[in-house]
Amino acid sequence: MTSAANTDSASDRLQALGLALPELRDNPYYVHHRSVDSSIYISGQLPYQDGWLLGQGTVGRDVELETAKELARHAALNCLAAAVQAVGDLDRVRIVQMLVFVASTPDFGEQSNVASAASDLLIEVLGENGRHARTAIGVAGLPLNSPVEIQMVCTAV
Hints:
Order of helices and strands: HEEEEHEHEE
Distance between the termini: 30 Å
Radius of gyration: 15 Å
Number of strands: 7
């Protein structure tokens, strides 16, 4: 089996991980990305797959840490799909900043571990272009009772 680290392009690394960029559905109220100068602002993405929200609930009560980490990876994958919409090619994407919201109980305290799963995915796929500034915060609730939402700022390389 080929290691994701031994392949040439970001698309090859994504495929080696057994992943593909999802198709994002249009929304009448917002766009998935907006470019201003060289910056690309990615709207908050939930862990959707094929039009279905993969989980609901509060981390630390209804959702286990490992599940939340997997949901964060899906939300990050959706962010990458939005970035590719903006720049046209995964190899042209550089992540500048990632903001991870985790709907969690007040005593949870492991938001950074949830965010690290998304960070790991970005670095696995994009290499050095996936390294980023990051903030992870716990919140009382998110849209559609999602456990995780991720917002990003990217640039084209």
